[in-house]
Amino acid sequence: IEVATSHKGISLSQRKYVIDLLEETRMLGSKPADTPMDPNVKLTVEDGEPLNDPEKYRRLVGKLNYLTVTRPDIAFSVSVVSQFLASPKITHWNAVIRILRYLKGNPGRGLVYRDYGHRRVEGFSDADWAGSPVDRRSTTGYCVFVGGNLVSWKSKKQSVVARSSAESEYRAMAHTICELMWVRQLLTEIGFTEASPMQLLCDNQAAIHILSNPVFHERTKHIEGDCHFVREKIQQGVISTCHMKTGEQLADIYTKSLGDVRVQYLCNKLGMIDIYA
């Protein structure tokens, strides 16, 4: 990780790592892509012909995993291609090449940390209901900000099939609250305390209503364990929830492949800047 400091803040990037990766895969002269994954392509296990050298695929995906440390914009696409390590196909390899072409466009893009004058802890939670064409499982996506700076994020397929969009969003909220609790504990240990409750922002009103409704409905009774955990933190005043517009949901980039305008907008909101540009 390359660290650059100035009066404006601290920048973290992996520019040399990206360039070395492009050189190793002979992609330095490739045409840059606007997005890490084609929004119109849905990868499945049975897609296309088997790859001649699956080890090459596994090595490359493993190296891309290290890049997600400073490149949250490729977290979802790397998560998707990681699901086909057992028997990769040519279409899966093409998806990995698409990620490399995207990196070629902004090899020096990284995270910039600034002093915004506050220490609020905020979590953005989102889910793509039944988004996986393989097993119809939903994808959880969340990101956590401390003092306006991105410190934690994740894109991961849920372990069970959700029966409704509200359920998938609610499970994502439970994972986000776990991460928020961990962040608060870490901040307390290093001497930073914030009296105000941590804020959880979600774009699904049904999932937020479940938090404040003591009656478990038919569609939520099978997630009662998660429900008690989340509602307990709300009642304790540790977490406060807030509904936000889908267009302003920053965790959107961790749950699905998006168009170039949307990707650029979210990268700016996440504090991702190419200081070498």
Question: How would you sum up this structure, described in words?
Answer:
By secondary structure, the chain is an alpha+beta fold. The protein folds into two domains: 2-111, no CATH class; 117-244, Nucleotidyltransferase, domain 5 (2-Layer Sandwich), CATH 3.30.420. It has eight helices and nine strands. The strands form two sheets. The chain has a five-stranded mixed β-sheet with strand order 6-5-4-7-8. A hairpin with a 2-residue loop joins strand 1 and strand 2 (9-13). The chain is globular, with a radius of gyration of 19 Å. The two termini are 18 Å apart. The mean pLDDT is 89.
Strand composition percent: 15-25%
CATH level 3 topology of the largest domain: Nucleotidyltransferase, domain 5
β-strand number: 9
- Strands ordered across the widest β-sheet: 6-5-4-7-8
Secondary structure category = alpha+beta
Helix share, percent: 25-40%
Assign the CATH class of the largest domain. Alpha Beta
Number of helical regions:
8
Q: Could you state the order of secondary-structure elements as H and E?
A: EEHHHHEEEEHEHHEHE
How would you briefly describe this protein structure?
With 277 residues, the chain is α+β, with helices and mostly antiparallel strands. β5 and β6 form a beta hairpin.
Task: Give the SSE layout.
Layout: E1 2-6, E2 9-13, H1 15-24, H2 54-67, H3 75-81, H4 90-105, E3 109-113, E4 121-128, E5 139-146, E6 149-157, H5 165-189, E7 198-202, H6 205-212, H7 224-235, E8 239-243, H8 260-269, E9 272-274
Parallel strand pairs: 4-7, 7-8
Antiparallel strand pairs: 1-2, 2-3, 3-9, 4-5, 5-6
